[in-house]
Hints:
Blueprint: H1 7-10, H2 23-34, E1 43-46, H3 53-64, E2 67-72, H4 79-91, E3 100-105, H5 120-130, E4 135-141
Parallel strand pairs: 1-4, 2-3, 3-4
Amino acid sequence: MTYSDLYVEKYRPQSLDEMVIDPGIKAYFQEIFDSDNPVIPNLLFRGKPGGGKTTLAKIIQKKLGWETLILNASEENGVDTMRDKVVSFCQTMSIDGGMKLVILEEADGLSSSGGNGSSAQELLKNLIETSSKYVRFILLVNNI
Length: 144
């Protein structure tokens, strides 16, 4: 059995039309996708597990076609991971010169305090502010 054989992956919606979500949210993203130069703001999706947060993020990723980094922040939640993976991803130019996207699943699992006064959350906040010209972030959380 492979990952794609799991029902949640096999039957995951592949487009915005296939998702069962609020019509206002659907219209908002459809308007972005229909524009000539689609750009999204930084986004925070909050809700219970199984509510469609990851599915919507993957649809956005697929539709925009931007170079993307996806991390599960509950597994890779330290400041060192943020420095090694996310910062280096954000500081390099995209292959096509366009926008980049960082999707942090379970971002509520990011460390909030480090031994030397730094934390993954503080680093991420600064990174979002300094890289806003070429990188967008989608944070997926279960608990605010």
